[in-house]
Structure formats: C-alpha cells, structure tokens
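Intended use. Records such as the Alanine racemase entry shown here are meant for training and evaluating sequence-to-structure methods. They are not intended to support clinical decisions.
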Amino acid sequence: MAEKVTIATVAAYAQVSRQTVSNVLNSPHIVRDETRRRVEEAIATLGYRANQAARQMRTGRSHLLAVRIEPTRDGINGSVLDRFLHGMTFAAAAAGYRVMLYTADDDRDEIKTFDNLLASYDLDGFVLTGTDHGDVRTRWLAERDVPFVTFGRPWDAPERHSWVDVDNAAGTAQATRRLIETGHRRIAFVGWPAGSGVGDDRRDGWQRTMKAYDLDPTGLDRGAPDGIAQGADCARDLLTTPDPPTAFVCVSDSLALGALQAAGGRKAVTGFDDTPVAQAIGLTSVSQPLADAAARCIDLLIHHLDGAPTGTHQVLLQPSLVVRTTA
C-alpha cells in the first residue's frame, strides 16, 4: 500500500516547515510567492489531499466560496467570465478552498439565492461579479456581515468594500492612442448605453485621450446593447455622417465584430476583452489580466476571513493592448 502523504511529507519535499505548508493551505497571502509556488508544486507532485472535515473543525470554516455564473449572451464575451471563473477555481484550490457556482436572473434574484445558499450551506464567503451603480447585492451582504469581495468597483463609493478591477479607461486610452499614433484623427467610439459603470469608464478613456491630442470627439460616440448586429448598426450610422470616422474603438469584441463587418475591412477597428474570436480573426483588442484578477479576489477574501485588520482594500490592474491586423 502506498504511504499516506501528509503535511510533513509535503514539507520535507518542498524543504520548508510544516507550519509553512499549513500557511499555504490556510493563509496563502502571508507566504512569499516563491515559497508558496514551491509548496503548491510539492502538493501537486505528491498528490496531497487535505482532510477537509478536520480542517473545518480546526478553523471553523467550510473552505467553500460561492460565485455566480452569468447568463450566456452571444457566445463571444461570455468567454471573459469563463476565464475568470477558471482562474478563480484554480487559485481557490491552491489555497485549500472549493468554489460553488450558482445562477441568478438578475441582482434581486441573486439576493434570494444568497439567502437560500446561506441557509443550506456553511459558506465562508462570496465573490461577486458585474458590479454597477448602487449595487443592492453588496449592501445586502454587508448588512448581514457576510464576507465578500467583488470583481468590479462599487462605482458610487469606491472605498465601500474590498474589490479587484481592471482599469478599463486605461485600456481604451491605449487603443485610442495607438490609432492616433498611426495617423487617425476621426476615431469613433462604439459603446454601451450610458449608465453602465464599466461602459462609461471605457468611454471616458477614449474621450480623454482624444481631447489630450486636441481632437474633437463630438458626434463620434454611439451606444447600443452588446451584440454583433448592434455594433454593425452603430458603425453604419457613423459611416453615413458627412465626416465619417476612419477608425473605431469598441467597448467589447462583439460590438467590434459588428463594426468590422459594417466597415467591410476598410476601417481600423479595436475591441475589448481579447476573446478567442478576436484571436482567431486577427482583431486588435484590449486584454484583461483575468487570471491575476481572480487570484487577487481570492487573496483579498481569504485575507478578510483570516481576521485581517478592519478596512477595505482596492486593487486596480492594468490591461494591455494586443495589436493584430485590424488596427
């Protein structure tokens, strides 16, 4: 019979103390990155499995976190959250946690789901996605002292709770600057209707960059719900104006694909999210560090569960422009 792999076995293999292995399993944020990676590699190599029942009795936690699966839209931008969930599941497992997935039709329905889940399971906390102005979900959890962290900012009060987000404005600013530097002056923005926190932030990056180069963005902005057909409609409308744009910065890859279709390949187009479709067709797009964002969400939530000093923590990550053939 194969010898049982214990924390002591992992510690000896990784050449660290047993306390260090325990810290990696229960409080990974306090362990140096290099040491944590060495221990995680030892755990994977040796096939170590923690005794969850014993750990729950020792720590008073279930080591179970919950996150919502967003409804599928057009099959393009849905892949963004898929990558985030994959990164979150991987990061949680490395820290000794499991992830429960749930569905909800909207924010109010999600609150009902919170109530049901908390009544049925011993959850340690939630990771929320898709934040917006006046988010009722975060208020509900905070009022009941349920630990949570969000992927996305509380747009009306950034210091309200801990969050991880990507600098959306910096992403569209990079895309706009790239187009300006390659000679474009009439650069349009195809975004979502006003009022979306993320959409407004991406629009602001385009607008501020245009003005910084003394270019007038007036009349070059269109908004529509996400989708290829909607992006094509917005682009056609802009292309029929007396002084049409020569390039498009889009709030998503779906809208960018529509703009690309409407322009017939004759205009420069950039998207946002660097989806597999963008990679397949050569669409220039802004890439979000989703795996890093997921890992930081897990770190912040565990930091809170470990009884860290009160206060909120905010992490703003930088995106990068992936230049391909369309711009």
